Amino acid sequence: MSASASRILIVDDSEDSADITAAYLENSGFQDIRFARSAADAYAMLGLESTAPDADGCTFDLVIMDIMMPEIDGIEACARIRLSPTGRDLPILMLSGVRDADALNQAFIAGANDFVGKPVSQIDLTARVRTLLRFKREQERRQLREAELQKRHKELERGTLDGTLVDPLTRLATASVIDVTLRSCMETGVSACLALIQIDELAAFRARHGDEATDELIRKVAGVIARVPAPLTAVLTAYEPGAFMIVEPNARDVSTMQDTCELARRRVADLEIRHGNSIHSTFVTASSAASLGLANALIDLPANLLSRFQRGWTRGDTHVEIA
């Protein structure tokens, strides 16, 4: 989100003070600025007094609020905003012309994220505003990643992998789980272990038994793999039809993931599903590969792992590499 796209609410009973704050923000590229002359006005604009924010349905990315205001001061208003779903994660920057340590402490206890003293410095104000907006964007990204990962993990834990999850049209959605996890590892500077488990000779099975039987095979294999013990932090996804990926953030080595892969292959073999179109095995088998990647070399790990499979690694086995 650029500065011009950020919506900021200035809550200040002093029109002159609010105009100065707005002018500094506009000089720094912020264009969407709204004003509230009291805490009550701010409540209405934030949607605290109704079921929807503001009369035109707008939401805000940041609130800049003066501590000293009549009737309801900034500290009480901050606490009220924090109690609402709308304002629970909303960045709040407090302004005050009085450097009272007790008042500042009360403001932070009420939920304020930062403080700027009056008279306001444009450099100080914009630096703190940009920092809070970056924090908000990162928090929103993390919440989205966590929600998607939890949803996928629960689906696979229940063994409810259905046709829509492995459909090629949804490959980007499933692959994105791996992508966001690896990007998070890169951002935090930690390694990750990635494993690929793939049904052997799936195309030959489909040619012999048809699409319906193949989809049922994928469902059964997915259910088996989902129930294989894995590291607590590991996330399992359907990468493409007949191929499943497991990512373990902050992994120190590949030994645990290797054990998981080998157990998964044995469980697939134990299903004893007749292949009927293989010169290698009577029953359906699976192959796997595990690779440990460092933080600066993670984003290409899924594609590299799949490429190694396609170059003809031995079927029905587990391979280990370190990227």
From TrEMBL:
Cited PROSITE patterns: RESPONSE_REGULATORY (PS50110)
Pfam families cross-referenced by the UniProt entry: GGDEF, Response_reg
Keyword Transcription: yes
Domain Response regulatory: 7-133
Assigned keywords, A-Z: Phosphoprotein, Transcription, Transcription regulation
GO biological process, one term: phosphorelay signal transduction system
4-aspartylphosphate: residues carrying this PTM: 66
Keyword presence, Glycoprotein: no
Entries under Gene3D superfamilies matching the protein: 3.30.70.270, 3.40.50.2300
Domain of life: Bacteria
InterPro entries: Bact_response_regulator, CheY-like_superfamily, GGDEF_dom, Nucleotide_cyclase, Rev_trsase/Diguanyl_cyclase, Sig_transdc_resp-reg_receiver
Protein name stated in the entry: Response regulatory domain-containing protein
Naturally occurring in which organism (per UniProt): Rhodobium orientis
